[in-house]
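Slide 14.
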Amino acid sequence: MIAGRDEDLAFFRKAMSGVDPLHERSRDAKALHRGASSGPAPKQRPARSVAPPAPQSAAIPDGPPIHGPVLHVRPGLQRQVVRKLKRGGFAVEGSLDLHGLDKTGAGKALERFLHDCVLDGCRCVLVIHGKGNRSAGGHGVLKPYTVNWLKQHASVLGFCSTQPRDGGTGSVYVLLRSPARSWR
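Slide 15: predicted structure.
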């Protein structure tokens, strides 16, 4: 059996005869190994302002009122992240209840809340807009506005209706882009 190990070692050494160990490679070869280009290092992009823009419009999107669950994600968000958000798998690091506010007050409160959450490095927050069970017409008045504002907000990566334990279709989990945290 020992002979088998010697043969395997000899075969391995022969197969690796033209390969340099990583510590002996040049800087360019190391860069290629990591998947980077062999050219000069890319310039760092200037840091963006951390103050998110104000909602562009308080108009309700065209169409009927929103009764059921909502889901909106920015392109490029990984499927497993979306699944985790929909399951309520992220720890909620802040919440805002919009009950009792009119659309102007709700818009300002939401903007202020999201701005503070981004500065604090929050990943996932809860926004309660209500179901509208007690409002005229039986649909949430603030829900379409909230959906519209969140879609426009630069720091929002995605949002979806919450699990029943957190309010169901009367609230949303909001996943934020945060410069202060890693997303892994």
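Speaker note: Helices lie at 2-15, 27-34, 79-87, 103-120, 142-152.
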